[in-house]
Amino acid sequence: MLDxxxxxxxADLARKAAVQVAPRDAAQKLAQARAMTGAMxxxxxxxxxxxxxxxxxxxxxxxPIRVRLTRPDGAASPPLLVWYHGGGAMxxxxxxxxxxxxxxxxxxxxxxxxxxxxxxxEHPHPAPQDDCLAATRALRDAAEALGCDPARLAIGGDSIGxxxxxxxxxALREAGERLPEAMVLVYPNTDLRPDRPWPSLGTESGHxxxxxxxxxxxxxxxxxxxDRHTPRASPFLAPDLAGLPRALVITxxxxxxxxxxxxFAARLRDAGVAVTAHREAGMIHAFLxxxxxxxxxxxxxxxxxxxxx
Length: 309
Description:
The chain is α/β, with parallel strands linked by helices. The chain has one domain (4-308): Alpha/Beta hydrolase fold, catalytic domain (Rossmann fold, 3-Layer(aba) Sandwich). It contains 9 helices and 8 strands. The protein has an 8-stranded mixed β-sheet, with helices on both faces. It is globular.
């Protein structure tokens, strides 16, 4: 059963969608989709006191990548969590996730580096993943200079950002590089195949996302359908997940992505990865960003804090 607070958010999202005019062309359709994603910030509540943020730049494959570094005031060498925001790889921003990540910084005590990776359609697959990987390497190597604990690094992301976290972990493992100590996957995409068999794509369609909206995002992000059958676009299909960092996988009962997230958690566990997985009853996609409307967003942050330690 949908949580009443989640129902209120869904009703407000429907109200916002109803006043949009029919797009006249592809450019306006993309602009509207990005605006709706940006409007998630309306539900985020207030930023906490005692947390500061600044923007820095790290080297990337196509030029500098902007990163927003959020940290608890007065913290001496906090551990560092590199975060990849959601938005279907064609929307989302540092600004849209600013308040939720400040809230997460407050409860975890970790510094959080949010990566402003390039977006499709202008920069399709694998540009976003390449930016996330490059930024993670740069932040890992600069952790001490940034005032963070160089011995403690984790990665994480919500929605498509969870997919990027999995991709980064796989890439670092394949390169034989030092792995993060943990990864946090919050209602992640893990399988972008058009014919993916997950029942929740149908049963939960209309709760924040629909089959059609997901197809639209994936068409922009990975326009070549053949590429969606590769692990870089669909980490669920990676032939070997052994040796990845311990993982927290959070899914929501009323989320079209629920089943593929849980399927990925099962594959990680089968590969010998230490997995903490749980389903948030009554909850919807993106509720990490909805603290102003959904009180259980605080419980989600607490779960992440408990996992990171």
